[in-house]
# Entry
Amino acid sequence: DSTGNGGTTTTGNVARRLLFDTSTREILLQLVPERKRGPLREVMKRLAVVLRVISSTRRLSAQKADDLESFCKETYKLILITFPSPVARLSPSVHKLLAHSWELVKLNENQALGNVSEGGIEACNKLLRRYRIRLSRKRSQHDNLFDCAKRLWVNSDPVIQEMRLATLPYCKHCDMRGHSRRWCPARVQ
# Structure
């Protein structure tokens, strides 16, 4: 990790660096037997292309969506032929990426999946943990989850959100909520 204390290397940033940065990719390829370097280099390039297309926010033409389907299938076959089952097995993530991501793009009216992220769901984990521990009944799992769902539902209500916004400090200098005049970022010292 960035602090120099070791740690796992399975983060998305490390994977992106491995697939998209050619110098990092070449360093990794030095660890592989020479006869497998060419095919592995090709597989890594293809995975990088698929990931870039999938994580884009653009709409694909019908022809490009069909090209993505055939490209994913060819990459899947290349992996299975080059690295047979006893040598290497496909992880579920790679299987989903190559076998099903093109289907999702087509079902999404040829819109790439960059706008479909888990960020909102991940952001709710902190709230959900707080609700389950502090603000819900503990006598049964049903009651606990019911109370959590009610609180999440209330938090998504626009009227409640407006009421919460009204309680934030108001700045007379820039006419915005969230800070006072004393701490206004627009105010020049």
About this structure: The first strand starts at residue 170 and ends at 171. Residues 59 and 108 are 9 Å apart (CA to CA). The two ends are 39 Å apart (CA to CA).
